[in-house]
Specification:
Rossmann fold; 22 helices; Helicase, Ruva Protein, domain 3; 8 strands; binds adenosine-5'-diphosphate; binds magnesium ion; about 475 residues; globular; GMP Synthetase, Chain A, domain 3
């Protein structure tokens, strides 16, 4: 390896620019994140257009490479315009050779590193504007949340908690529902509302994943005491996507203790997950009990009406004029979740702007073509057969068998119907996959189920549910 130069002035210059780079990085990612992940980085040297950086463990190396690699490279352009690439390696000796305390003293952080004995009050004060909490998205507020049947209960609960945090019966607030139905939106809304009504109350919002990485980072960095104290110093703790803690026993344990400490101290907890506390498998019963001990609110799948209102609201917000017919078509077609709905609308608006053409019914399929197709590509006939068999508690082999008993024939027809709706397979192809049946059998199944869905509510609901299960 050749350093940029061996003479002392060059080495000094390099060290100085490395210090500057680290300082820029620190101010960009925030103190805590820097301390957890980046403090132990050591510059090994610069070789041509490659800067080599060492970290003390593979875990840290992978993490830094994947999460900060691009940022480092772009920040490095200031001092090292010739560097095109960063290479990360594991180098325990080199990394520990860096005197962390001296480094910290130089950065004025000695006090923070001496943390375990710090008084909680002091930590709480730091806490409020420290970056160890995830930032809140300014677009996600109650004002921009469109309320309809599927989410009105969850919305009411969230508002109630935002107005009077930690009141009896509403703690914890447990929000659950499928992907893209507004859990994160509601959580941010609660956080914003509490922040503006009670600016002095620290609110911490983070994903369960982040919680986990912070915790692991604290464990590795020997700063668990500080981490715990920070968590326990907030007035409102919000953990998004709790299902990510499943199977992470240590982290779950830590969360459980934090949870208890906060609730016992009269602080508000808000949690979201993809399932209800009862249906979350893999969590300890004592945690399950506590999670369900406040109010549990479900965000249901969107209805056509809600999707239409959301589209109208979003189009208004974006200041674009979308014909009602177009919105109706999207509300029909993009039924999976609100995220996809937004994506579809954004795409159409961008298209209209780009080509300076007004939006019409004809543009919709053209523009959303691949968006709808990617959905199809993901779903296979096999998936459909399996899901349907599971749902009706019949054997997978009954999908191909010649049995004509209603108990298996109807589910088989539902599966054929879904295969036609959700995949791009032709009728003969579908027939072949259902025990070599004729394409007219498939055609018959499709029209039979279409008819039945009008008169038989249960069947219609089954089909809708299966569809949703397959699409998400
Ligand atoms: P989840 O966390 O449940 O996966 P999000 O809260 O991230 O879903 O919602 C996905 C997207 O849809 C976000 O951009 C959010 O703003 C939007 N969204 C969801 N529900 C609504 C709603 N009722 N009104 C307005 N926007 C919504
Ligand atoms: Mg979310």
């Amino acid at each position: 390896m050749t350093e940029t130069g061996n003479s002392p002035p060059d080495a000094v210059k390099l060290a100085a620019s490395w210090t500057r780079l680290r300082a820029r990085l620190r101010s960009e990612v925030g103190e805590a994140e820097y301390r957890n992940w980046l403090r132990q980085m050591v510059l090994v040297g610069i070789d041509g257009d490659v800067a080599q950086v060492a970290l003390p463990s593979r875990f840290l190396r992978d993490w830094v490479r994947d999460h900060y690699g691009d940022k480092l490279r772009s920040l490095a352009q200031v001092d090292w315009p010739h560097v095109k690439r960063f290479e990360f390696r594991v180098g325990a000796e080199e990394a520990t050779a860096e005197p962390a305390m001296a480094d910290a003293a130089e950065e004025g952080l000695a006090e923070i590193l001496a943390a375990p004995s710090r008084a909680p009050a002091r930590i709480a004060a730091d806490n409020r504007d420290s970056e160890w909490m995830a930032p809140l998205d300014p677009r996600l507020t109650f004002d921009s949340f469109v309320v309809g049947k599927p989410n009105e209960f969850a919305n009411a609960c969230a508002r109630r908690v935002a107005e009077r945090p930690a009141s009896a019966g509403f703690n914890p607030l447990f929000l659950y529902g499928g992907v893209g139905l507004g859990k994160t939106h509601l959580m941010h809304s609660v956080a914003w509302a509490i922040r503006s009504a009670y600016p002095e109350r620290p609110v911490a919002y983070m994903s369960a994943e982040k919680f986990m990485y912070r915790f692991i980072g604290a464990l590795r960095g020997g700063s668990t005491m500080e981490f715990k104290a920070q968590l326990r110093s907030v007035d409102v703790l919000m953990i998004d996507d709790l299902q990510f803690l499943i199977g992470k026993d240590n982290t779950q344990e830590e969360f459980f203790h934090t949870f208890n400490a906060l609730v016992d101290a009269g602080k508000q907890i808000v949690v979201s997950a993809d399932k209800s506390p009862n249906d979350l498998s893999g969590i300890e019963d004592r945690l399950r009990t506590r999670l369900g001990g406040g109010i549990v609110a479900d965000l249901h799948a969107t209805t056509y009406e809600l999707r239409l209102s959301i589209l109208q609201a979003k189009a208004d917000l974006a200041g674009v004029d979308v014909p009602l017919k177009v919105m109706e078509l999207i509300a029909h077609k993009v039924a999976s979740n609100v995220r996809d709905l937004e994506g579809a609308l954004n795409r159409l608006v961008a298209h209209a702007k780009l080509f300076g053409r007004p939006l019409t019914l004809e543009t919709v399929p053209e523009v959303l073509n691949d968006l709808l197709r990617t959905h199809e590509r993901r779903i296979t006939i096999d998936d459909i057969q399996r899901r349907v068999a599971e749902h009706y508690s019949i054997r997978m082999t009954d999908m191909f068998s010649a049995r004509r008993a209603r108990a298996v024939a109807r589910p088989r027809q539902v599966a054929m119907f879904l295969a036609k709706q959700l995949t791009s397979r032709s009728l003969p192809e579908i027939g072949r996959r259902f025990g070599n049946r004729d394409h007219t059998t498939v055609m018959h199944a499709v029209s039979r189920i279409t008819e039945l869905m009008v008169e038989d509510r249960t069947l219609a609901e089954d089909v809708t549910l299966l569809r949703k299960l397959l699409e998400t």
